[in-house]
């Protein structure tokens, strides 16, 4: 592993760079690993996997309980790294670490029963069972927006199943990547079982093809997903993709408007709007559209934007300047296409990558903010004629990750939910993730599932053992 340097003169082209998005100050540079270092990482990981796959379940459980404790012991350090590297408010950063620890504890408690041999009834005296066996090392290509949680979400279930894990993290959060590697090592996992690959795309493609890597999981853009899936398919390896979304937040005429507005503000502007599972398209049934819009804009105006280390601040900066510039382009393009700007729509005039909370009305299919994922603090409002129109608008997207549905009639909501083309539907709530519940998408939001029993079994060999007893 190459050690980071705080020397701003270090050549960025040779590695990854971490910069504070609230101040634009350089934090560190992380030179790419040499081919020899990558090879050593693969060898160490392969050796650690052979040790870990045969580790008794009770010892895995104990290791996971130590992992949860270590995450909590280092919570302030990890939260500070999250805030410094990607701009999340410090309170949200602490919550991210706690959520990670809670998920690891859930896996420790429920993982053994989920992975236990599963008997299969058959005719006669034969005995059949299915075993969920590890398949090897999994490469995780992870995003920057939840730099601790996303990695735990991927590595936690995968490693508990007996696999190894190699992390290719986003280049702007390499501090979080190396801090997590230290957390796993401090918790007593075999050295090298969880390890970072800090390298360019060409090297990562070689890692995917390497016979010591069994499969790959990616959370990121459609473009990155297509590249990784293609590389995995070429090597005849399994892949899991979570490629973001443009979640619909549907509010029907009988909904509790005040609660829907409160939830909508959190669902859209939390983490400065930089969440895959986040409300992005607000689809309002016509009778309540005016009231919801008025209250939503009033609430958005009250959001404070500033130093993410200040506990009173609601929104920090966006993670990178190029991401802010792209979001601003999407906003301006949508306005040019006929949408109405109700709030914001501009970069905040201060150091850092701040963008004002923004609300666009009269957004229609075909417009940029309706068709594309807006990965930042921008809410797009569309009015539906009726329930059927709302369903059609929600489904009129290339994405299918999550969505929210607000109505007083929960029985009707559950019927509607089955017609929404998404991996998850949240009735009278907003998109979230929980260790007990699978997360993943359909359409261009990807395939495969993380968390719950699906995640624990996703990268296993479901081996059927059929015994015929001979007299």
Walk me through this protein's architecture.
41% of the residues lie in helices and 19% in strands. It is globular and about 75 Å long. The longest helix is centred in the N-terminal third of the chain and has 25 residues, at 90-114. With 471 residues, it is α/β, with parallel strands linked by helices. Residues 1-13 have low confidence and may be disordered. The chain starts with 14 loop residues before the first strand and ends with a strand.
Task: Give helix % range.
Answer: 40-55%
**For the report, how would you describe the main beta sheet?**
7 strands, mixed
The CATH topology of the largest domain comes to Aldehyde Dehydrogenase, Chain A, domain 1
Number of domains: 2
Distance between the termini: 58 Å
* Major sheet strand order: 12-13-14-11-10-15-16
Summarize model confidence as the mean pLDDT.
95
Strand content: 15-25%
CATH class assignment of the largest domain: Alpha Beta
Low-confidence stretches: 1-13
| Radius of gyration, taken over Cα atoms and rounded to an integer in Å | 23 Å
Report the principal-axis shape. Answer: globular
The CATH architecture of the largest domain would be 3-Layer(aba) Sandwich
The CATH homologous superfamily of the largest domain is named Aldehyde Dehydrogenase, Chain A, domain 1
User: Number of helix segments?
Assistant: 15
Annotation, overall tally of beta strands: 18
Briefly note the structural class of the backbone.
alpha/beta
Care to give the gist of this entry?
With 471 residues, this protein is α/β, with parallel strands linked by helices.
């Amino acid at each position: 592993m190459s050690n980071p340097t705080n020397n701003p003169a270090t050549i960025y082209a040779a590695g990854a760079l971490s910069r504070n998005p609230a101040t634009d100050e350089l934090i560190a540079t992380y030179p790419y690993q040499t081919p020899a270092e990558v090879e050593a990482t693969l060898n160490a990981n392969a050796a650690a996997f052979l040790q870990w796959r045969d580790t008794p379940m009770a010892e895995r459980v104990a290791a996971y309980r130590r992992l949860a404790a270590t995450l909590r012991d280092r919570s302030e350090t990890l939260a500070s790294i999250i805030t410094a590297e990607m701009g999340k408010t410090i309170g949200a950063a602490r919550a991210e670490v706690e959520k990670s620890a809670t998920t690891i504890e859930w896996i420790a408690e429920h993982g053994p029963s989920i992975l236990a041999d599963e008997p299969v009834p058959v005719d006669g005296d034969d005995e059949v069972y299915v075993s969920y066996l590890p398949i090897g090392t999994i490469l995780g290509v992870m995003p920057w927006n939840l730099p601790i949680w996303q990695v735990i979400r991927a590595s936690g279930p995968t490693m508990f199943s007996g696999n190894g894990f190699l992390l290719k993290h986003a280049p702007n959060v390499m501090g979080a990547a190396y801090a997590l590697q230290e957390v796993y090592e401090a918790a007593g996992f075999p050295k090298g079982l969880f390890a970072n690959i800090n390298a360019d795309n060409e090297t990562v493609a070689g890692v995917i093809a390497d016979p010591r890597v069994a499969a790959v999981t990616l959370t990121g853009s459609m473009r990155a997903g297509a590249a990784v899936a293609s590389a995995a398919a070429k090597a005849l390896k399994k892949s899991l993709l979570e490629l973001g979304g443009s979640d619909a937040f549907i509010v029907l005429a009988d909904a509790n408007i005040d609660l829907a507005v409160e939830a909508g503000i959190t669902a859209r502007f939390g983490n400065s709007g930089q969440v895959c599972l986040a409300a992005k398209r607000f689809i309002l049934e016509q009778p309540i559209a005016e009231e919801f819009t008025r209250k939503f804009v009033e609430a958005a105006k009250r959001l404070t934007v500033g130093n993410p280390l200040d506990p009173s601040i609601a929104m920090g900066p966006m993670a990178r300047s190029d991401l802010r510039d792209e979001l601003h382009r999407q906003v301006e393009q949508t306005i040019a296409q006929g949408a109405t700007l109700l709030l914001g729509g501009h970069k905040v005039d201060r150091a850092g990558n701040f963008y004002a909370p923004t609300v666009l009305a009269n957004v229609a299919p075909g417009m940029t903010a309706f068709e594309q994922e807006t990965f930042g603090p921008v809410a797009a409002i569309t009015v539906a004629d009726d329930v059927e129109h709302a369903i059609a608008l929600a489904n009129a997207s290339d994405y299918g990750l999550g969505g929210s549905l607000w109505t007083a009639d929960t029985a009707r909501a559950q019927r509607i939910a089955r017609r929404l083309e998404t991996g998850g539907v949240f009735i009278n709530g907003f998109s979230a993730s929980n260790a007990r519940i699978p997360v993943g998408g359909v359409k261009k939001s990807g395939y495969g599932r993380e968390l719950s029993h699906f995640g624990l079994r996703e990268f296993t060999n479901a081996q059927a053992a059929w015994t015929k007893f001979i007299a």
